[in-house]
Amino acid sequence: MPRSTDRFVVLDAMRGLAAMVVVIYHGTSHVFPMGYAAVDLFFVLSGFVLAHRHGEELSSGGNGLAFLLKRVIRLYPLYAVGTLIGLVSAGLMVGRLTGWTWPLYGTAVALAPLFLPVLSNVALGIFPLDGPAWSLFFEAVGNFVFAFTGSRPRLTAAITALSLPLVVLAIKHWEGGGGSTLEEFPGGFARVLFSFFAGVVAYRLWSAGKRLPWNVPWGLLFAAMVVIYAARPHKAAHYDALLVVLVQPLLIWAGAGSRPGKFEPVMTWLGAISYALYVIHVPLHLLLLGLLGDSDGLSYYLGVPVAGGHNPLPFPAVLITLPLAVAAAHVLTFGFDIPVRRWLTKRFAG
Asked: Are the CB atoms for 82 and 133 separated by under 8 Å?
């Protein structure tokens, strides 16, 4: 069994690739129509990695509150940066977006530091200042449950089995299972509990030696991810359920045994910047479109009319957002997040 300090480098790279898929999906869903399902891959990855690092400790009576503090330190600094960018990008939307008023903006500003959703039907979602934070909220829910269950085999299997029909129902009623808007909010609980604990189950199988008889080449795993998110299924809900329930947990289970070879430095970097890339890309994208006055681009992303602005960009704004977000993610990860988390850990969780 690997030591808790060991890393699954290919899984890190898969997280980075999934983050890029989500960025592209938010900019133009024509490339990866199923890109929203990559969020469920994040949940599976989280369950797998946290079971590897903390599962046995928590299962044998470890301090759940100490674990949760470590998770706050991991998630909060970059969430705060994304929210600060969102103060500007969401502010530009006031008066241009139906229902998005200064009082509601003020409510979002007040709730954001507490990491609480805004229970409103505004098109910016339940975290108007930083759209992707909806999944971080549900990640926190999964972490909370895990803090007091660990990776106990029977309990983990029970949570996964009980949440399976719930996530299938959520996918049937809402695209992808929901979670990001007030209407779809209940679906997020089923979505995270199933995928997170499916990741825990995958880790238990992997650590028990139940693995493929050969190492799957990382290139094949990357190609599989591109294919499944680029697919245009006739019945999206059925396909989405297949991805969430079976395909993505299997990808993580198989990826754990894959080897990066000479590309390890690149994959390590890709995994390192993945969280920053995910958490800042939406406020950056909206800021870019807002400053350029591209109402068509904003309407495309938000799915509702946006007032004001002028002619749209002659190309998808994601062609600017993606490289900008990758560069910003690199700087924020190595220049801000890592040193800040190191200090916070030493100060509060050492």
From this structure: yes
